Amino acid sequence: MIAYLSGTIKYKGANYLTILTNGVGYKVSLPTDMHAKFKLNDPISTYIYTHVKDDAIDLYGFTSPLEIAFFELLISVSGIGPKTALAIFSTGKLPVIKDAVVRGNVEFFTSVPRLGRKNAQKIIIELRSKLGSLEDLDLSPESNESKEIVGALKSFGFERDEAKDALKFIKDVEGSTSDKIRQALRYLGKK
């Protein structure tokens, strides 16, 4: 299974890139906003979802493992394949898609090519219940930094709840992750 690729763009198709890695070119389909960012010979690193069918192996590229997790949720809905799920990612970024599910925004999904009202409703109904199992999946842009801070605070012996409380305190603090960890430690030391 291919999970991550790093290389150079050798060819740019309508909705895919050929990524050259160690002399091998991989055809990787991408959401349109990600696809538009790159030119020939640009370096690229992308997380990969590998879809295996009887007659083909297709690769789909994303900017984060969180996007892949949500992509997998989308294709778990009956009637939604990888191409339709990729079209959904091309219509909106991950927080927008999640918000459309939570709010029951059928119009967002029907604006996706090849996706009718019935399948849009099915996505909303099926994913609302599955999103409950992903409560810890923070889809905000700061989620990786937040996880790193919580992990660091836990390694200092603080409980997860204390670390989350410190995150709220330092949410407006500017600076590097280490600066934020120091601020969080000061905050927790005063409690």
UniProtKB/TrEMBL annotation:
Residues 72-91, 107-126 form the Helix-hairpin-helix DNA-binding motif class domain. Transmembrane segments: none annotated. One of its GO terms (cellular component) is Holliday junction helicase complex. Residues 142-191 are annotated as: Domain III. Signal peptide: none annotated. Residues 64-141 are annotated as: Domain II. CDD domains: UBA_RuvA_C. SMART domains: HhH1. Pfam families: HHH_5, RuvA_N. GO terms for molecular function: ATP binding; four-way junction DNA binding; four-way junction helicase activity. It is found in: Cytoplasm. Keywords: ATP-binding, Cytoplasm, DNA damage, DNA recombination, DNA repair, DNA-binding, Helicase, Hydrolase, Nucleotide-binding. GO terms for biological process: DNA recombination; DNA repair. SUPFAM superfamilies: DNA helicase RuvA subunit, C-terminal domain, Nucleic acid-binding proteins, RuvA domain 2-like. The RuvA-RuvB-RuvC complex processes Holliday junction (HJ) DNA during genetic recombination and DNA repair, while the RuvA-RuvB complex plays an important role in the rescue of blocked DNA replication forks via replication fork reversal (RFR). RuvA specifically binds to HJ cruciform DNA, conferring on it an open structure. The RuvB hexamer acts as an ATP-dependent pump, pulling dsDNA into and through the RuvAB complex. HJ branch migration allows RuvC to scan DNA until it finds its consensus sequence, where it cleaves and resolves the cruciform DNA. Belongs to the RuvA family. Has three domains with a flexible linker between the domains II and III and assumes an 'L' shape. Domain III is highly mobile and contacts RuvB. Homotetramer. Forms an RuvA(8)-RuvB(12)-Holliday junction (HJ) complex. HJ DNA is sandwiched between 2 RuvA tetramers; dsDNA enters through RuvA and exits via RuvB. An RuvB hexamer assembles on each DNA strand where it exits the tetramer. Each RuvB hexamer is contacted by two RuvA subunits (via domain III) on 2 adjacent RuvB subunits; this complex drives branch migration. In the full resolvosome a probable DNA-RuvA(4)-RuvB(12)-RuvC(2) complex forms which resolves the HJ. This is Holliday junction branch migration complex subunit RuvA. It comes from Candidatus Gottesmanbacteria bacterium RIFCSPHIGHO2_02_FULL_40_13. The lineage of its organism: Bacteria, Candidatus Gottesmaniibacteriota. The gene is ruvA.
